[in-house]
Design brief:
The protein is about 50% helix and about 5% strand. With about 425 residues, the chain is mainly α. The protein has two domains: about 10-190; about 205-410, hpI Integrase, Chain A. It has a three-stranded antiparallel sheet. The termini are far apart. Its main location: cytoplasm. Keywords: Cell cycle, Cell division, Chromosome partition, Cytoplasm, DNA integration, DNA recombination, DNA-binding. This is Site-specific recombinase XerD. It is found in: Cytoplasm.
C-alpha cells in the first residue's frame, strides 16, 4: 500500500474531515471493492492511481490555481468555499459524490477523464439509478452516512431535482476549469434548456386544508408538561412558517434575539424579525401582534420572559426539555411532517371522500407552508409588493406565482368586468 502523499494543501486538509469524513484515502483498490464502493460514502472509498484523476485525460497541463493533485482534493477545494453554508454544502457534496461514485463504479473512470458523452449517460442514470440495490436505499429511507444501509439515492429523483443536480455539476466543472485543474467543461457542449417557471404554485394548502392543519395542532394532547410543551412548540413553529413565510433553514438558523421593536412616524410600536436568509441575504419580516403573542406563550412555557432581548441567542425553536441548542433542519422537517401526517389521518377517519385531501397533506412539507403563506396573502388582497418583500423575493416575477384565481371565479369576473359594450 502506497502511503498518502504529503503535498496536500493546508486549506483542503482543513476541510477534508468535514467534506468526506476522517478515514484516510488509501491508494490500493481491488476489483471487488471497486464494484461495491457505490454503497459507501467517499470517505470509505479506496482509490488506485488510475482512478484518482492524477493522470486524467481532461487535466489541464498549465499552472493550476489550487494545490490539489487529484480529483478528490480538487472537489474538496470546491466544497471548501461553501463549508460555512450547511444546506448549500450538503447539496453540493451530495451531487459531487453521486458523480464521482458513478464514474468510478459504472465506468471505471476518474472524474477528470469524463467526456461529454459520459455526462449524457449520467443524465440518464439520474432518471433511474441502476442497479437499484447498489444505489437506492431500501424503503425510501434516509440512513446516516455511516450506516451500511446508506445509499446515494433514497427515492426516484423528480425532474426538477435531476435538473438541479446537473446545474450543480456544471458549476463544479466550470470552477475546476477556472481553477486551472481541468482543461475543459464537458457539460458546456450540452444544450441547456431554460427552465420556465410554472404559471402557478401548486404545492400549497388551500384555506380549507390549512384549517384542518390548525385543527389538528389544537387537538394535540396537553395534559402533561411535556405534552403541553410539544403542543406549544408545534403551534409556534407553524406560526413562524405561516405568518413569517420563513424557509426551514431560516427557522433553524436565526434566533429570538432577531426580534426587535421600533416606532414608526406616527409613534406606533411595531415588531420586526431580522432574518438572515438564503444566500446570506438580510431581510425584515413584519411581526404581527398574533406572532408576538405566540412567541410570548412559547417562551413562557420554556421559563423565559415573554419578550426576547435584542441579540439574545435563544434559537427560534428549541428541543423538548431543558436544552437551549438549535434544532437541526432534519428535526424541524420531522416535526412538520408529523403534523401533516396527523392532520391527514384525521381526514381519513371521516371517510373515503376525504382520501384525496389526506393524500395531498401527506405530501406537504415546510416549503408548502411558505407557498401557503404567499398564496393566502395574495388571496387576501395584499399588495403583491408587500408579498414580495415579506417573502424576500428579488422581483415581482417570483411573487406572481402565488396568485391563484379559481377557474370559475376567473370566468365570472372576466364576463362581468371585461366587456366590449357594442
Amino acid at each position: 500500500m502506497i502511503p498518502k502523499r504529503k503535498n496536500r494543501s493546508a486549506q483542503t486538509s482543513r476541510y477534508s474531515s468535514r467534506v468526506f469524513g476522517n478515514s484516510p484515502f488509501r491508494r490500493s483498490i481491488s476489483t471487488e471493492r471497486r464494484v461495491s464502493s457505490g454503497r459507501t460514502p467517499l470517505h470509505a472509498l479506496e482509490l488506485s492511481a488510475d482512478l484518482d484523476g492524477r493522470d486524467g485525460s481532461n487535466r489541464a497541463r498549465g499552472h493550476s490555481q489550487i494545490a490539489a493533485h487529484d480529483d478528490l482534493n480538487a472537489v474538496r477545494a470546491w466544497l471548501a468555499r461553501v463549508a460555512d453554508k450547511k444546506t448549500t454544502f450538503e447539496n453540493y457534496r451530495k451531487e459531487a459524490e453521486r458523480l464521482l461514485l458513478w464514474a468510478i463504479v459504472q465506468l471505471g473512470k476518474p472524474l477528470s477523464s469524463l467526456t461529454h458523452e459520459d455526462l449524457q449517460l449520467f443524465r440518464q442514470f439520474l432518471k433511474d439509478p441502476l442497479p437499484h440495490a447498489r444505489w437506492v436505499a431500501d424503503g425510501g429511507r434516509k440512513y446516516p452516512r455511516h450506516d451500511p444501509r446508506w445509499r446515494r439515492f433514497y427515492r426516484t429523483l423528480r425532474p426538477s431535482s435531476q435538473y438541479q443536480a446537473m446545474v450543480i455539476i456544471n458549476a463544479l466543472f466550470a470552477w475546476l476549469v477556472e481553477a486551472g485543474y481541468l482543461a475543459g467543461n464537458p457539460l458546456s457542449l450540452s444544450r441547456q434548456r431554460i427552465r420556465r417557471s410554472k404559471p402557478r404554485i401548486t404545492r400549497y394548502l388551500d384555506h380549507e386544508l390549512w384549517h384542518e392543519v390548525k385543527l389538528h395542532i389544537d387537538s394535540l394532547p396537553k395534559d402533561t408538561p411535556r405534552e403541553r410543551e410539544r403542543y406549544l412548540r408545534a403551534r409556534w413553529l407553524f406560526t413562524l412558517f405561516y405568518l413569517g413565510g420563513l424557509r426551514i433553514s431560516e427557522v433553524g438558523g436565526n434566533t429570538m434575539g432577531s426580534f426587535f421593536c421600533r416606532r414608526d412616524a406616527d409613534g406606533h410600536e411595531r415588531w420586526w424579525l431580522d432574518v438572515l436568509g438564503k444566500g446570506d441575504k438580510e431581510g425584515l419580516v413584519p411581526s404581527s401582534a398574533e406572532m408576538m403573542m405566540e412567541l410570548g406563550r412559547y417562551r413562557r412555557e420554556r421559563g423565559l420572559s415573554a419578550l426576547p432581548s435584542r441579540h439574545e441567542d435563544t434559537p427560534l425553536v428549541l428541543p423538548l426539555g431543558k436544552s437551549m441548542q438549535p434544532l437541526p433542519r432534519s428535526a424541524l422537517h420531522t416535526i412538520v411532517k408529523a403534523i401533516f401526517a396527523g392532520a391527514a389521518e384525521r381526514l381519513r377517519l371521516r371517510g373515503d371522500g376525504f382520501a384525496a385531501q389526506a393524500d395531498l397533506l401527506e405530501q406537504a412539507s415546510a416549503l408548502w407552508l411558505r407557498h401557503t403563506a404567499g398564496s393566502h396573502m395574495a388571496d387576501g388582497g395584499a399588495d403583491l409588493r408587500t408579498v414580495r418583500d415579506n417573502l424576500r423575493h428579488a422581483s415581482l416575477t417570483s411573487t406572481n406565482i402565488y396568485l391563484h384565481t379559481p377557474d370559475e371565479e376567473r370566468h365570472r369576473e372576466t364576463v362581468e368586468k371585461h366587456r366590449i359594450e357594442w
